[in-house]
Amino acid sequence: MLNYLLLTSLAALVLADLEPEPRYLEADTFGEKVVGGEVARPNSWPWQISLQYKSGNSYYHTCGGTLIRRGWVMTAAHCVDSPRTWRVVLGDHNINTQEGTEQYMSVSRVYVHPNWNSNNVAAGYDIALLRLSSDASLNTYVQLGAIPPANQVLPNNNPCYITGWGRTQTGGQLSAQLKQAYLPLVDYKTCSSAGWWGSTVKNTMVCGGGGNESGCQGDSGGPLNCNVNGQWVVHGVTSFVSSSGCNAYRKPTVFTRVSAYISWLNSIMG
């Protein structure tokens, strides 16, 4: 049995080591988001976006995402599989302050992967595309994230960073400033082995972190930025963590592996 709801208490599922249970990282519900990490240099991840939903007359941050074309944002399916009024904020650093670098875009259409099943995150397909109402203006603060070639798989311990506005400690507040945390990649053979995630993790996913000192920092939908030959490439979309705690030992953060979905992304974006 897998549990996909964010829980108010980490103690609620102490059996996660025996039976790994994924937990999403959305910011508008309960649960813990981030352990570790550091505040990023402002606009040093210029493809990172804040996905916000409207409630009343205000917008609230709920997930991250990646600007991959001027009119397209990639995020997690579970962030956008319920009908809401969305907007995307580009070029942001402090989500509580207007710094003059932001671009605010409404979302004209949401494309959730057709095989996504909200009752079974372990099946994969936790990926979605957002069509922006207009194209972003690229500048120092807003850039496109590079995505990998189809089916590229990075080696164990490849250096990667997760970025997002997630909580700075268990039960704490969302970080107003964009944070980053170093999550070295864990290869599929290791991550799917007994004592790690086992069969919960599929080969269309990628794992990062899993050590005692690693952060698990960042919201669902945001990028896993991996260094590939000196270039930052978005190899993952933040999907879930263990219900026993953010980045519990040998339960690294699990991401949708972007390189497994290149043909789907291209079929939607044209």
From TrEMBL:
<dbReference type="InterPro" id="IPR009003">
    <property type="entry name" value="Peptidase_S1_PA"/>
</dbReference>
<dbReference type="InterPro" id="IPR001314">
    <property type="entry name" value="Peptidase_S1A"/>
</dbReference>
<keyword id="KW-0732">Signal</keyword>
<dbReference type="Pfam" id="PF00089">
    <property type="entry name" value="Trypsin"/>
</dbReference>
<keyword id="KW-0378">Hydrolase</keyword>
<dbReference type="GO" id="GO:0004252">
    <property type="term" value="F:serine-type endopeptidase activity"/>
</dbReference>
<keyword id="KW-0106">Calcium</keyword>
<dbReference type="GO" id="GO:0046872">
    <property type="term" value="F:metal ion binding"/>
</dbReference>
<dbReference type="GO" id="GO:0005615">
    <property type="term" value="C:extracellular space"/>
</dbReference>
<dbReference type="InterPro" id="IPR001254">
    <property type="entry name" value="Trypsin_dom"/>
</dbReference>
<dbReference type="InterPro" id="IPR043504">
    <property type="entry name" value="Peptidase_S1_PA_chymotrypsin"/>
</dbReference>
<keyword id="KW-0479">Metal-binding</keyword>
<keyword id="KW-0645">Protease</keyword>
<dbReference type="GO" id="GO:0006508">
    <property type="term" value="P:proteolysis"/>
</dbReference>
<dbReference type="InterPro" id="IPR018114">
    <property type="entry name" value="TRYPSIN_HIS"/>
</dbReference>
<feature type="domain" description="Peptidase S1">
    <location>
        <begin position="34"/>
        <end position="270"/>
    </location>
</feature>
<keyword id="KW-0720">Serine protease</keyword>
<keyword id="KW-1015">Disulfide bond</keyword>
<dbReference type="InterPro" id="IPR033116">
    <property type="entry name" value="TRYPSIN_SER"/>
</dbReference>
<feature type="signal peptide">
    <location>
        <begin position="1"/>
        <end position="16"/>
    </location>
</feature>
<protein>
    <recommendedName>
        <fullName>pancreatic elastase</fullName>
        <ecNumber>3.4.21.36</ecNumber>
    </recommendedName>
</protein>
<dbReference type="InterPro" id="IPR050850">
    <property type="entry name" value="Peptidase_S1_Elastase_sf"/>
</dbReference>
<keyword id="KW-0964">Secreted</keyword>
